[in-house]
Design a protein that fits this description.
Blueprint: H1 6-18, E1 35-38, H2 51-59, E2 64-71, E3 77-79, H3 100-103, E4 114-115, E5 121-122, H4 135-141, E6 148-152, H5 157-171, E7 177-180, H6 184-193, E8 198-199, H7 203-216, E9 228-232, E10 235-243, E11 246-254, H8 259-265, E12 272-276, H9 281-290, E13 294-297, H10 300-308
Parallel strand pairs: 1-2, 1-13, 2-6, 6-7, 7-8, 9-12, 12-13
Antiparallel strand pairs: 2-3, 4-5, 10-11
Length: 320
């Protein structure tokens, strides 16, 4: 049997991505490879969640964009992920405690570094600052047919959900945006407020089903048709066993996306899976073989370049 190379499968996936209607991810039985999603616009290539990151990611071959949204004190949804502004910018404090006029003055690329030709760490955006964009600016910066996976990353959820609703209403962006949150409160509130919202299932539901499959060999309540689920392809987890005189903790890297787990998720039909944290050709190939619809990567440029290289055949062991 002839197997298509990763590069040829990527070409087929790109054609399907271009055929996506309204900017939504629409996997097809003919899709030969998972679509490449740029995590926060490609955190390894450009300062994350900036307009420059989103546009660079598309130039580097990403077919969809993962964006992270929080809301300012005065109700403006902006693209930022960490809990504190000091993590990435030249500011400090929680974004939710600042008005947009002050957030706008910060440099979103302040902490972004790379190695120069001499191996020295440099900060290329300290002299060329990048603003934290609003959600409205981020959506306007990319073509309308590019799918957007929007991670709502703030608690309490109500102010953020209401601010996101306002922008998606104003820009008629509901068909091109699918919403995710690690907090079920955010997606539950969004579902109640806007039934047309396209949502991922809760992270708890995805994780619990994977744990049941991995530890118990059980397919627990497979998701309904039309469900979207996403979680890390590999994940370091702690297994905690509690007993009378204490507890035992085992740390393990969970390779929980087995063929049986994928079969469980897809057993009701028309369920779509996104693998987070796919950075190597080997993981991309594994996700493709398992039948994932999309993979999320920190560096579309590195992943594309690695996939374009001819894969070296593995040596065959011989008996001595």
């Amino acid at each position: 049997m002839l197997l298509a190379s990763p590069t040829s499968r990527l070409a087929a996936a790109a054609l399907i991505a271009l055929a996506c209607a309204g900017g939504t991810l629409l996997p097809s039985a003919a899709q030969a490879a998972p679509l490449i999603v740029a995590h926060r616009g490609g955190t390894g290539d450009t300062p994350e969640n900036t307009v420059q990151a989103f546009t660079n990611a598309l130039q580097n071959g990403a077919q969809a964009l993962w964006m992270t949204v929080q809301v300012t004190r005065d109700g403006v949804p902006v693209m930022y992920r960490p809990a504190d502004l000091s993590a990435l910018t030249d500011g400090r404090g929680k974004l939710a405690d600042m008005d947009y006029a002050d957030v706008r003055k910060l440099n979103a690329g302040y902490s972004f570094s790379r190695k120069d030709a001499n191996g020295q760490t440099v900060y290329p955006y300290r002299d060329h600052p990048l603003p934290i964009p609003t959600l409205r600016e981020a959506l306007a910066a990319v073509p309308a047919n590019v799918p957007v996976l929007l991670d709502m990353k703030q608690t309490p959820a109500a102010p953020l959900v209401e601010a996101v609703i306002q922008v998606l209403d104003d820009t008629n962006a509901w068909p091109r945006v699918r919403l995710y949150s690690t907090e079920a409160e955010a997606t539950d509130r969004m579902r109640a407020r806007r039934p047309q919202a396209q949502l991922f299932e809760s992270r708890d539901a995805t994780r619990n089903r994977l744990v049941a499959a991995a530890l118990g060999g059980q397919c627990v309540m497979p998701p309904a048709p039309g469900t979207w689920a996403g979680i890390e392809f590999h994940r370091q987890v702690e297994v905690i066993e509690r007993f009378t005189l204490g507890e035992g903790v085992s740390k393990v890297v969970a390779n929980w996306w087995t063929p049986a787990a994928v079969q469980c998720f897809k057993s009701q039909g028309n369920v779509h899976l996104v693998a987070f944290g796919v950075e190597t050709p080997q993981d991309y190939e594994a996700a493709s073989q398992l039948g994932f619809d999309a993979v999320m990567t920190d560096s579309p440029s590195r992943l594309r370049a690695a996939l374009a290289k001819p894969q070296q055949p593995q040596p065959v062991a011989t008996a001595k």
